[in-house]
Amino acid sequence: MAMAKEGSTGGRRTWRWRMAKVGLASGASAAVGMAVRDPDGWQRRACRTVRVAYQAARDYRRTWKQAEAGGSTCGGDVWCATYADMHVRQADRLLQLAQKNGGLYAKIAQFVAARSNVGFPDVYGKKLQQMQDKAVPKPYAAVQHVLEQDMGKPTLQRAFQQIEETPIAAASIAQVHKAQLMDGRCVAVKVQYPQIKKQFMADLFLLETIHAMSRCMLPKLDLKWLLDDFRESCKQELDFRKEQANAKALHGIMKGAKGIHVPVVLDDLSSARVIVMEYVEGWRIDDRTSMKANGVKERDVSRLLANAYGKMMFAGGTVHCDPHAGNLLVRKDAKGGAQLVFLDHGLYVKLPTQLRKEYASLWVALKNKSNKNLQLATEKLGVPADLLRFHPLLFEGDPPAQHRAWQTIPRQQRKDMDDWISSRMDGQGQLAADAMRFLTSLPREIVYLHRAQAIVASLDRELVGRGKGENARLDVYFKHAMAATG
What we know:
With about 475 residues, this protein is of the alpha+beta class. About 60% of the residues lie in helices and about 10% in strands. The strands form three sheets. Strands 1, 2, 3, 4 and 6 form a five-stranded antiparallel sheet that branches. The protein has a four-stranded mixed sheet with strand order 5-10-9-7. The chain has a two-stranded antiparallel ribbon with strand order 8-11.
């Protein structure tokens, strides 16, 4: 059999592709081996994942060859504009895989969508943002076993008058049941699915194996940072004791804050897999029809949201990083005023004191429209000195804040930044490479804040529209930031 000359480009590619095929097969075998001991669909998920990975690899190889034949200088740079159509196909494949596999795949699709401006072309965010963390509820008998294991049957019988068997919500990790305590209080009981931790770890192992082998083919496609970040996020969300601690911390930060409510957690009935907390009813923050019908003004809700995040980011240092509409309820308080309720405390970030103050300094510099101070604050966040001109990227996803940051920089640099934001696929230019290096140099905590702020800005725009209403949110942030640095 003829062999490619050692050291040649063709030889290296042939070796990489052979290793990749072996790796995909090995990863599938390992995942199936882990799945054999549990019948909960692991083998089907593993097979779908390996099939999609192989299709993606073939698509990339075919696009690469076509680009080379056409005289492209992109080489193996997957972010080059030549690969734009391929990324659309890959995003469609990932969306379909997440929809079919559910569970961890739904969460990682959301994770990627939220980070499409940090390491991914925009098309992934646009496609994968369709994913919602919803799941088909499991029979009550399945979660009842978890309740009995963690609480014990005697405690379960003494504490609850009844637990409704039909859940009021179901997601990838757990489902929530409404219940009534013996003293008459209504509570929400969030119960983790049995074996979910084991299932998540097996699925994540497969994804990490596929990624490791994909580096043989695509050496410039390094997504280890994403998988490491996702693994850490899963560890947080799978341990409900951390969620209980987060809820308590937020309750403390919001103590005395008018119009903000954090449901009380019942520690004596909660565990690593079960949370029992005060049951709260209200309207989703994006349900403007219900708010209007009940006399709640969107402007008031916007002000509450801004004040809550101002206190979290600049005063408390403990920040709820999953503020999607399903986790924020609106209701009327005892006096008839608007009240914002925070649910689901699984994904939080804690800012060390120094980092919190440096982040506050960034917003003070933004308030003062000082390019010099914005660059100084950006440098203190760990960004290399040669990349400080990219400071508007710190506000991406928050249009009024980013617009304000753009206005502080010299006109030519502003044009360069605007060109990159528009193209987003210019993998050949130094500008795109530098911008990517800027984003990946940020502390993990700032990346999480970046994501949360983009979601808050989107919700705020839905509530009050563009322009003056959005700027009111920034004014609230500025007030809290100045207090933190004063």
